[in-house]
Every structure is written in C-alpha cells, then in structure tokens.
Amino acid sequence: MNRPTTSPSTAALDGAGFDSADVLARVAEVIASRRGGDPERSYVARLFHKGTDTILKKVGEEATEVVLAAKDGDPAKIVYEVADLWFHSMVALAQFGLGPADVVAELARREGLSGLQEFAQRSTRPPA
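The structure assignment produced for this chain is given below.
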C-alpha cells in the first residue's frame, strides 16, 4: 500500500482524506474520558484500573504482534496491528500525563536530522 507520508510537524491531510493529527487527538480525548470510568463497562477504564504494569504488558504484546504481522508480510494485518500498538501506546502516554502531541513534538524536533546524528545527540544529553 503506497500512501503518502506526512510531516509530523504539519497537520496535512493524508492520502485517505483525513487529518491524522485530528484523529490522534480525538482518540486521545476518548482515552482521557475513560480514565476513572467503570472497568466493567470500558476496556480503557479497565486498563487504567489495573495500572501501569498491565498497560505496559499490553504495549509489549501489541509490539510483538506487529513484528509477527510484518514477518507474515500482509500489509492489511500490519496496519491493523500497528493501529493496536498505537492505541495502547496512547493509553500508556495518558497514564503518564502525556499525549500524541508530545510525541509529534519530539518527532518534529528530530525532523531533518540524520538517524546517526540524532543517535549521537542522545548519548551526549538526556531528553528535555
């Protein structure tokens, strides 16, 4: 699937005709609204209720599923599993008072740096 990529520092419409940043912000709002909710009625509330370890285990499980999907080479399955990983990563971010905008800001900070250059900067100073 060849979809155009968008810069993390812009809110451009992607190839499907929707604003990726808006979608991430709306999902983050739903996640935040479920915090403190009834764990019997909301999956996200249940994750928050069970705590950080459960949330992080779920992120690890989803990351493994992404790897397995990629090894299978099925683009639709890869996208499906990455969506699960992103969702659970967003729950983890919310657990620590963070959101997608924080990740986008970090990507924007790195934009234009070579991977080697960014890696070298990491070893000389801690993240802000």
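Interim note for the steering committee: The two ends are 36 Å apart (CA to CA). Confidence is low (pLDDT under 50) at residues 1-12.
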